[in-house]
Structures are given as structure tokens and as C-alpha cells.
Amino acid sequence: MAMAEQRNDKPGRSAAPRERTGWLSRIAPGVRNAFAKRETPENLWVKCPDTGEMIYRPDLEAALWVTPSGHHMRVGAVQRLKFTFDDGKFERIASPVVGDDPLKFPDIRPYPERLKQARKAANEYDALAIGYGAILGQPVVVAVQDFAFMGGSLGVAVGEAFVKAAQEAVKRDVPFVIFTASGGARMQEGTLSLMQMARTTLALNEVKAAGLPYIVVLTDPTTGGVMASYAMLGDVHLAEPNALIGFAGRRVIEQTIRETLPPGFQRSEFLVERGMIDRVVTRGELTAVLSSILKTLMMGRAQLPAA
């Protein structure tokens, strides 16, 4: 017994396991990392709404968010401005600041909270963004409605931003181009929202009094009060392919007139055939088409005083 106890007390005999120092233990961490499950970045693949095809996001961005099937996906305001201006460079024009809840609108969620969430998601003050730059060398003021911001709805802030854009075009003596995308008037602002239809029309009168072109590019969707006001007051009306354009929805119209509407009704190709819009233009061609129209109209304006 004494000898056994003496052996147990020999130095170096510890209950703790020895640290592995072999070659396998040295490479084990690297092997584990190599075969570990890697996190896939969110939204790396985007599904085409038409075909269901999964498209690699960088490829879609390089194609200006037009899928291989030709579907023109909705884009944000800043993206649109970058697509439109030369080299993606432009001067951002700040929109006027307005009160958030002029009518104290009662809702399930307070209107100011909805605005706060929309501003955080879109990183914009409201649904209309303004920029000044050049399109193939032609200076122009461009306004863009963002459908992601509360459906691009027309409210006091959008009306004020539109008036600001029109005034900047007159001040800088350049054409005014707008990309429309809206579900209509913003119900949380009631009559104040509807009043913007008249205010924007008056602002356009100043642009036209100055002899400056006003071009409208209708994108998906452009409906309601926007369609009934400044979206249809352009000197030239362009539209992206298959864009939904109309005042009331298809179902509402069919229930009202009690008839079945034809296929493609309220789509841009249907409307160009009936003279409501001038031309359907793909996103890739839009810059060149806008430049040609603007330069032609501005050339005609320059020749008027000489005549």
C-alpha cells in the first residue's frame, strides 16, 4: 500500500488530459473551418416575377434591374437618379420639410410612426426625390417617385417637392423630367392630399410659361390622383414596358361598367396603341431617348426668339 501511494504521488502524474501536440491536432482547426457551414448573404439571388427564375443580384444590377425575360423591376429613387444622369453623378436638391400629421389622422398605427418606418426603410424624407445633373450632356432637373415609400402616394410633402423641382427647373433654365410611380393620393392627409393635384398643375404652368420642356416617364404603377394630374400633363409621355397605368383599378372598372376589359388593358403597350402615351422605351434605351427629345425641344426653344 505504501508503494502504491508513493507511485501515485510521483510528479508529472496529473488527472488532467495532456494537450495534443500532434500534426493532426495542429491542422484540425483549419479543416473544421474549411467544411463549416458558411452564411449566405441575404438577397444574393432575386426571383423574376414573370418566370420565377433566380437571378444573381450583381448581374441584375448590371442590367439596370431588368430580368432576362424583359421584366422591369421597380427601383428606388437614388438608383433611378444614378441610372439617368451621366456617370451617375448629380446634385441632390433637398425637398421642403412639412408637418408630419396635419390632420391628426386616426389609424391602427399613428401616421407619424408609419412615416418614420417608411423613412428608415427607403432612406428618404418622402416619396419624391429631386436631382440636378446632365443626361448625355443636357442639363436637366429630374424628380423620381419611389413606390417603396408608402406606395409613392401623393401627399403634402410630395406636392411641395414637386413644386420645388419645377421652380428649380425654371431657376436654372433647364428641362424638367419626372419618373412617376404611385398608387394615388395619401389617405392619411385627406383633402390636403387632393389639393396637391391643383398645386402641381399650377407649378407646371410656370415651367411651360418659361418655355421649358416637361417630360413624363411612366413606370409601374402610375395610378390614381397622380395619373389624373401631373403624370398626364407632359409635353412627351414615355413609359417602361408593361407598366400599369390608369386611374381606377381593373376590377373597379369592370364592376362599374359590367363588362370584361380586354387583355393588357391599362398596360403601357395597350395605351401607346391608343395614343394615350407616345412611346414605350426599355430602361437601357431610356437615357438616349430622353437626351434626344430634350435636345430637340431645347433647340426649338432657342430658335423661337430668332424667329
What does this structure look like?
- α6 packs parallel to α7 (about 190-210).
- By secondary structure, this protein is α/β, with parallel strands linked by helices.
- Helix content is about 40%, strand content about 15%.
Distance N terminus to C terminus? 125 Å
Task: Report the biggest beta sheet as strand number plus sense, adding barrel if it closes.
Answer: 8 strands, mixed
Count of DSSP-assigned helices: 11
Q: Give the class from helix and strand content and strand pairing.
A: alpha/beta
Question: What is the global morphology?
Answer: globular
The CATH homologous superfamily of the largest domain corresponds to 2-enoyl-CoA Hydratase, Chain A, domain 1
CATH architecture descriptor name of the largest domain = Alpha-Beta Complex
Classify the helix fraction into a percent range: 40-55%
CATH class of the largest domain: Alpha Beta
Radius of gyration: 29 Å
In the predicted model, the low-confidence regions spanning at least 5 consecutive residues are 1-14
Average pLDDT taken over every residue: 89
CATH topology of the largest domain: 2-enoyl-CoA Hydratase, Chain A, domain 1
What percentage of the residues does DSSP assign to strands (E)?
A: 15-25%
